């Protein structure tokens, strides 16, 4: 279903509880199935949660709760454009910090040796293998999350850089990536070596820079930087 159709349906359901300032719905995998309804006041949101929670839409019951943070529209209304820009910067910095931590944790897991104790080996010996339990059967336990590999992430105007040589600093990265149209800035991650973000005006401009620089050797020893799109 198209985003516009989803928004129209949500508008029809929620407008009776108060004035709606904004409806936000996204198509990316991580946010799929989520939407945000921004009301003019808290009282309207409370009424909507009380009345609509569990209401079935698109053959699924809705689960409603308050958002963890204020919407851009709310910040703009309460504090003005200047504070909104600061709010966006803080949110982006927090998002990048979390992504850097996730990347570091993923690297640790890859480096962690797979060990099996003697008792575990004995216990596993008599168990059937996965294949013997019925080839082709889907896992319905719901314990396996669907995660898109970094290499297949959809285009984003922000590039995520990893494995940056120690000899390559912010000035060096800026010199490299500022050659391409739409360049905004290079953001290093405090306390994290070898990681940075590069932002462009548009997804297309970021894609051009990504494709052009992925095979450019940099720093001492001529190493390649691993460049992917930032996760949505």
Automatic annotation (TrEMBL):
Pfam families in UniProt: RRM_1
Keyword Transmembrane: no
One Gene Ontology MF term: RNA binding
Annotated Basic and acidic residues bias: 86-108
Residue numbers spanned by region Disordered: 86-148
Entries under PROSITE patterns matching the protein: RRM (PS50102)
Keywords for the protein's UniProt record, in alphabetical order: RNA-binding
Full protein name: Nucleotide-binding, alpha-beta plait
RRM domain span: 1-69, 157-232
InterPro entries per the UniProt record, alphabetical: Nucleotide-bd_a/b_plait_sf (IPR012677), RBD_domain_sf (IPR035979), RRM_dom (IPR000504)
Statement: the UniProt record of this protein carries the keyword RNA-binding: yes
